[in-house]
């Protein structure tokens, strides 16, 4: 079954609790954390994740677009994240492995994320311990970008690796997801779809979520 993870990056931050409640029919709540270093944008940090946790029981899918993420894994876990994804490009492989180790010690689900420039094979050293792989179909850093159709092949390759080494691992796609692109990424092997403006940009948000469940 396809799962939908609305991204609060497209929500109204003045009315964040209200906008979180509007997406309660979704499966996950996607929280984009950007540090202005790994990506050229700043969003939210640990205090906001803690506040979100206090106003919802939704599964918090926290996407860390930050440099050297191992430094903050424990803090985000304590703030209430259910799953943390770290970018393979954000640190040396030994430190990515350490970040995943700390996730396990903190009891949160483990994920790695791939920028469009990164090969699917980069997940091989970690795949057997992962709960999710996140494939970006835009360059990370800003919402509202156009879907990169070239990433469909990466999604297929990641799905093949998952099926071979760890079939229960989920495959999430983030970037330019809308009713037209959702069937493409699902056909390629994704089962979790992150959507920002395709959900929060619509008048009928539950209907927008339902439209993505291809």
TrEMBL record:
Which of this chain's residues are annotated to bind a divalent metal cation? 30, 32, 63, 174
Sorted UniProt keywords: Carbohydrate metabolism, Cobalt, Isomerase, Manganese, Metal-binding, Zinc
Question: Can you cite an annotated GO cellular component?
Answer: cytoplasm
How many and how are cofactors bound here?
Binds 1 divalent metal cation per subunit.
> What pathway does the annotation place this protein in?
Carbohydrate degradation
Record's PANTHER family?
A: RIBULOSE-5-PHOSPHATE-3-EPIMERASE (PTHR11749)
Family recorded in the similarity comment:
Belongs to the ribulose-phosphate 3-epimerase family.
Name this protein carries in UniProt: Ribulose-phosphate 3-epimerase
The organism of origin for this protein: Flintibacter hominis
Gene name, please? Answer: rpe
